[in-house]
Design brief:
Layout lengths: L1 E7 L20 H9 L4 H6 L26 E6 L7 H8 L16 H11 L4 E5 L2 H15 L3 E4 L4 E7 L5 H14 L8 E10 L2 E4 L4 E4 L7 H7 L4 E4 L2 H4 L7 E3 L4 H13 L4 E7 L1 H7 L4 H20 L6 E5 L18 E6 L6 E7 L3 H9 L7 H6 L1 H4 L1
Parallel strand pairs: 1-11, 1-12, 2-14, 3-4, 5-6, 9-10, 9-11
Antiparallel strand pairs: 2-13, 4-5, 6-7, 6-8, 12-13
Helix pairs in contact: 1-11, 4-6, 9-11, 10-11
Length: 393
């Protein structure tokens, strides 16, 4: 038996009640993309995406997502317990770990951090500001090439990002710099991730490559991945999952450069018929389009995933279960280029799953309970008891 857990990175479905704290009032990633593009996600809609509480009531220009008459999956709207809107906190909570204190968010890195970073790496840095990654490399790229100084920046996420042209600072050297930065950004300085952002100069502009690497903190508590691993259940990670969890609780990982590679890797793994959890992150929606306020690109990425869904679903065996969710929002129609504090969708499909409206659930960690129950490691998972056929008998 296999559980396929797919995170559509940043696919939010509407502001949470506390969005004002995060500067995200009015954010609604899906509704605003639909309003602007009319993107049709017929396979996700068939599962119940548009039936989720609140989804079909928001829209403009006469465009609102249309609910399905008979959804094929169980569906819900999830709110996040952790007071955060970043990738690490979102994935941790999906895996059952709710952070009591969210990781620190910087507007810039203070003098003591910068001094220690320079001493540890032997480099001086450009930037040291909150910025869009694609914008800052265009603005500081030439100075970087002239001086050899890496570009340091952050965002309204708990991250330290270090960018370099690989013709100036080779990729492995950039990774070494980030590893030293990771060692510094712990304790009271902790950030969720240090991210290496390599780029090149191509067609008269600076372009990021797919050699990005994330350096996360090891999870500060037990996750469902640890639990499954300890009980001999295979955990396969696709995309940046292994980076987010520092490889902990993971049997095997496949790093991918984009959504197409991630979906191909997933289909290959499903065809191998090996049991266990397959945990997938599809990052293009967030990295390539959400953070760049590229509405059409985001819509295209959603449509691409939607078109791949039938092949994924057809490869499932009778005992298998497919889960589709997200980790936060990133509304590309707002002035901000950062993540947004939004509800996320939950769709659960399989031959054993009863289509069911689970309404709004507080906590992404309900997914961890459900996954553990699928492998016989929980007896009190509410979602499992409601939607799995044999549990209802």
């Amino acid at each position: 038996m296999r559980v396929v857990l797919i995170v559509l990175d940043s696919f939010g479905i509407g502001e949470m009640p506390d969005a004002q704290k995060f500067g995200d009032v009015g954010s609604n990633t899906y509704a605003h993309i639909y309003e602007k593009t009319g993107v049709q996600l017929k396979n996700l809609a068939a599962l119940g995406l548009n039936n989720i509480e609140g989804v079909s009531t928001v829209g403009g220009n006469g465009r609102k997502p249309v609910p399905e008459e008979k959804p094929k999956a169980a569906y819900a709207r999830l709110s996040e317990k952790t007071e955060a809107k970043d990738t690490t906190a979102g994935h941790y909570e999906i895996a059952g770990l709710v952070l009591k204190e969210p990781f620190k968010v910087y507007a810039y890195f203070p003098a003591d951090v910068l001094s220690d970073l320079e001493k540890a790496t032997g480099f001086s840095f450009l930037g040291n500001e909150a910025a869009s990654g694609t914008e800052i490399i265009q603005r500081l790229g030439e100075e970087h090439r002239r001086t050899g100084k890496p570009i340091l920046y952050t965002s309204q996420d708990s991250v330290m990002q270090i960018a370099a042209d690989t013709s100036v600072i080779p990729l492995q050297k950039l990774y070494e710099i980030c590893e030293k930065a990771r060692a510094l950004m712990t304790g009271s300085r902790s950030v969720g991730r240090v991210i290496a952002r390599p780029f090149i100069y191509k067609d008269n502009k600076f372009v990021r490559t797919e050699d990005r690497k994330d350096y996360a903190l090891e999870p500060p508590g037990k996750t469902v991945l640890d639990e499954l691993y300890a009980h001999g259940v295979r955990v396969l990670a696709i995309g940046k999952i292994a980076d987010i969890f520092c490889g902990r609780g993971i049997t095997e990982s496949i790093h991918t450069g984009n959504n197409a590679e991630g979906i191909r890797a997933l289909l290959d793994c499903l065809q191998q018929k090996k049991d266990g959890l397959i945990f997938v992150n599809l990052v293009d929606t967030d990295m390539l389009y959400g953070h760049r306020n590229d509405v059409k690109g985001y819509a295209s990425a959603l449509a691409y995933f939607d078109s791949a869904l039938p092949a994924i679903m057809e490869t499932l065996d009778k005992e298998d279960i497919l889960i589709v969710t997200a980790d936060h929002g990133c509304d590309p129609t707002t002035p901000s280029t950062d993540h947004s504090r939004e509800y996320v969708p939950l769709l659960i499909f399989g031959d054993r799953v009863m289509p069911f409206d689970l309404k709004t659930i507080n906590g992404f960690d309900c997914i961890a309970d459900f996954v553990a129950a699928c492998f016989g490691l929980r007896r009190d998972a509410v979602i499992y008891d409601k939607i799995i056929k044999e549990a209802r008998k």
